[in-house]
Write the structure tokens for this entry.
Amino acid sequence: MDLRVIIGSGLILLLFAGVASASSQYGSIDVYYNDEILPGKEVAKPTLKIGEPFTVRIEMNLNQTSTVFVKVCSLGGNFFEVIEGPSEFEKTKYMKSLDPGKHVFEWTLIPTDEWAGGSIPINFWYQINLIGEDEPAVKGEFTAAYCTISDEHYKGEIPTSENHPVSETEPSSTSASTPAFTLLGAISILALAFALFRR
């Protein structure tokens, strides 16, 4: 349990730097938790039962034709299971030559019992490559939800997988977004956490 407290404390520090929306010259990303947009730096903080379904939806507005990689992930392990979505948990989905405009990626997930009694983030990782380029134009990762998993089991109905489109294309729209979480910010927070725990 002490390891969970230490990891949880570190994750709380990371939450202060994480953002739920991102934008760059290549496009913008908005994040939704259970169909509610998470504006700016807001991160959903649900308390979930083991097996209780929830959704994370990403709306990505591309400014140019791009190759896109996306995934939902956490600290490793099988802390969540994907019931429906474009990729399995911790697995990258690759889409070549997406046109400019709005593309929607939605995952329905359930927490497993591996982190019962603790709190853990669900992150969204993305990479955008320009067509014909091997190096990413932009990539990032941020926390969409910081889930507290209770020891109780969910008794409601769990949705079954259906064939839904992975991406919808709509006319591009502008939205107020904040810059993506940076490597420098992560290193700074980890250094601060290390200094505090060293005392």
